[in-house]
Amino acid sequence: MTARRADAAPVCIDTRGLKCPWPVLRAARAMREAHALMLLADDPVALTDVPALAQARGWSSRTEKLKDHFAFHLTDDQPNEMERPR
Questions:
Q1: Residue whose C-alpha is closest to residue 46's, from 60, 26, 31
Q2: Among residues 3, 72, 76, 86, which is most buried (max CB within 10 A)?
Q3: pLDDT per position as a tens digit, 21-58
Q4: Residue 7 has what pLDDT?
Q5: 16-34 burial code (b ≥16 CB/10 A, e <16)
Q6: Are 27 and 37 in contact (CB under 8 A)?
Q7: Looking at the predicted structure, is the pLDDT value of residue 14 above 80?
């Protein structure tokens, strides 16, 4: 397993054109390795599902309405197993 770096640039995942649950599944998979993620989605259901995923996983989230889609900014502020002090 690779340690996630808190200072790494956010990963950007473009799920425009995909219907839920695909944006949520892609976000969950990307956050296994990333500390921060920007998810682009145009499915209105994502407005409910992506923040719910973030809340369930303990991630911070911010939603931004753009011209024809949404940008979800997800951050995992909790240290992973490799970063936790012993």
A1: 26
A2: 72
A3: 999 999 999 999 999 999 999 999 999 999 999 999 99
A4: 66
A5: eebebeebbebbbebbeeb
A6: yes
A7: yes
Closest listed residue to residue 59, CA positions, set 35, 38, 83 = 35
Q: Is 8 within 8 Å of 36 (Cβ atoms)?
A: yes
Q: Give the CA distances from residue 84 to residues 4, 6, 24, 71, in Å, rounded to whole numbers and listed in that order.
A: 12, 13, 27, 30
Provide CB contacts within 8 A for 31, sequence distance 6+: 37, 57, 59, 74, 76
Q: Which two tokens stand for residue 2?
A: 């690779």
Walk me through the domains of the chain, giving residue ranges and CATH numbers. Answer: 11-75 (3.30.110.40)
At which residue do the structure tokens 């892609």 appear?
26
Inter-residue contact 72 to 50 (CB < 8 Å): yes
